[in-house]
Amino acid sequence: MAKPATAVAKVEDAALPAYLKAFDGPFKNTTMEVEDLVIPRVKLLQAISPELKSYNAAKEGVFWHNVLNESLGDELRFIVCMARKSYVLFAPRGDDRMILARAPDGKHWDQPNVDFEVKVKGYAKPITWSTRGSVAESRLAEFGSSLPGDPQSPPAATLVYEYLVYLPDHPDCSPAMVSLSRSGIKRGKDLNSKIELRSAQVPQFAQLYKAVVTEEQASEGTYNGWSFKSDGVAEEKDFNQAVSIAKRFVATAYRAADDDMRDEAAPATSASGDY
After folding, report:
1. Which residues make Cβ contacts (< 8 Å) with residue 242, sequence separation at least 6?
2. What are the structural domain ranges in the chain?
């Protein structure tokens, strides 16, 4: 039986009781730092997404907040507070280790000089992936690295564009991470180019974008893809929120909730077609 959609109380939709209006803080009491948090991700639900079986509000082709388990609709306005190019070394499907190593700066593995022995479906012998001193030295982001002797095999490591975003229409769901990989990289480059071009006149923190859902074709059939459109200039309050988020996270190691990221991003191999 499907679970009811998570109901999230929005401050702007409900009047605060008098005792809270008079309260002047502090509004929280914790020693937790940013690095102790896991940033929610915004997923684009597919026909095979497990959320469709668990939540009434989950439908194919909607954007989904994976921590609050709440639908954000089929269009999503956002401001990019921070953007980074990273690499993730996923374990093959069926391997409980899930993520072997990350390079959140796109250059240095968080597990340098480590050998990971993996078993790939359709390939008889175990394979060793070595992170070495850096992404460049490991060559795991290059074609031919996932299967030895097969120069056409995809990279063992997956390129990921990660965007820490503020959602003006869902401030209670912000900040959140939008992660693009594999087929989403082309759309990510399009977004990167838009940000760069507009930055000549409009600060990044004032640039509004709208994510919309597209129907894409693959050898396995159709799937839902991301597309991005410029959506004008942010209001001052939203600009200030985006700047505040950027200042809070700029010098801090942070990561997104990625319990289901492998299924969205793990590469296929020429040997098996399924990692």
Report:
1. 79, 80, 81, 166, 205, 206, 234
2. 33-84+160-265
Give kind and range of the element (H or E) at residue 84.
strand 75-90
pLDDT at 19: 82
Residues 6+ apart with CB under 8 A from 250: 82
Half-sphere exposure of residue 223, counting CA atoms within 13 Å on the CB side? Answer: 14
Element (H, E) at 242: helix 236-249
Q: Is residue 45 within 8 Å of 64, Cβ to Cβ?
A: yes
At 272, the pLDDT band (50, 70, 90 cuts) reads: very low
How long a stretch of residues is the chain? 275
- Residue 46 and residue 58: Cα distance in Å, rounded? 10
Q: How far apart are CA 207 and CA 219, in angstroms?
A: 35
Tell me if the bond preceding 4 is cis, omega within 30° of 0: no
- pLDDT at position 253 is 74
Tokens describing residue 48: 């095979």
Tokens standing for 140?
């795991």
pLDDT band at 28 (very low <50, low <70, confident <90, very high): low
Q: Is the bond into 104 cis (omega within 30 degrees of 0)?
A: no
